[in-house]
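Continuing the series of single-chain predictions for the mutant panel. This is the parent chain; the variants come on the following pages.
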Amino acid sequence: MAMDYVLTGYMSQAMGQAVYDKLEDGTFAGRIPPCTGVVAFGATLCECEEELRSTLEDEEWNSL
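Parent structure:
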C-alpha cells in the first residue's frame, strides 16, 4: 500500500513552481513565487535546486 504524505505533495507542487535565473557571474538564483522569502543561490543549477528545496523545507518546519 502506497502512502502519500501531505508535506511530500506540497513540496513537489511548490518545487514545480520554482523559477531559476542564470546570473551574470554564471551562478544561479532560484525562487518560488507563491512562497515569499524562499530564495536560494548555487554555483550550478542542480546546486541551486537543492538549496531551494532545503530552504523550502526549513521554511515549512519553522511555520509548524
